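Abortive infection protein AbiGI, Pelotomaculum schinkii. Tokens?
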Amino acid sequence: MPIDLVIIMTETRRKKIKKIFDDNGPIVKASILRENKLCSRDITELIEAGFVKKHRTGFYSWASSDYNMSDIELASSLVPNGVICLYSAAVHHEFTTINPTIVSVAVPSSTVKPQLPEYPPIELYVFSKTFFSLGETSEQLSYTKIRIYDRERTVCDFFRLRYQLGEDVAFEVLKNYMARKNKNLQKLMEYAARLRIKTKIRPYLEAML
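Tokens:
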């Protein structure tokens, strides 16, 4: 077979593979690639050629099409069983002026901790399976949908872990939440009761009303 025909066939296959990434990306799991008849040798060849980027074992993106995803989007995609929480959720909800360099991700205590990528830096928080889904919501960002805790769960988590995270940060988060017109105090107290911090947070709420 002539060399130029081999090049044409290789380019044709590369375009088909890129379409798989376009249809399923930006981050694509190895299981999806296998379903589309791609073997590990194909992926290795594309990585070595600079067409595909490996984020962690089993998670890939087309190098020219990762769209400069935000760290939160990347973390959410690379830890699919996790939920964006604490500092990262507080920044997303505009409850704090802190600009963390690490993405905070909660994982359920019932699962094995996932392998983390070199980038972005991720800090895992293991939450009880009983309360893991409380306040979980999803939001569509620029390039992907993320799992994240809502405003009320974020406030409660800071109070629940205030000695570990810092009382000053917990008070800042609560103060900024209370300044919102769309706050839901009934939901906040329901969450606080389930997380067993109702008596801890109530005095501060009453002082801010």
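The chain is about 45% helix and 15% strand.
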